[in-house]
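Below is how a single chain appears once it has passed through the pipeline. First comes the sequence as given, then the structure the pipeline wrote out for it. We keep one example in the README because the format questions we get most often are answered faster by looking than by reading.
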Amino acid sequence: MVRIRVHYVSPKGSAEQIAEAIAREAKCVKEPLLPAYMPENVNLMFLGCEGNKADKVTLGFISSLSPNRVTHAALFLCGRDTHPLQQMREALTQRGIKVLDPTLTAPLKGFFGKGPGPEDLRRAAQFAQDCIASVS
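Resulting structure:
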């Protein structure tokens, strides 16, 4: 059985919507990073954030991880710039955690952005299925 966790930081609510779709598909609960219990013996962790850079909370959480806690990570982002995905990938790889390809991006709610729509949530569910199959 694959042990799965879904963690996110979502000040605008967009990453939480995507996390909910992933968690529903993975049959687990979604957990915001603050507060989050430290994962132990997790085969697959979905990790997401919002905006144009990986926030301090996300990077701080990653710095506490090890391959004993999490073996694989799948990344998602709500925003236009893929730089946060690269930041998270590099930080996880440095910790010895395997980061799956591909990643998932979705729109960010904001002044002009509508946030994730039904198609984005469908893609999130498919992303979860694909990631779970790749580590099973």
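The chain has one domain: 4-135.

See the next section for the split statistics.
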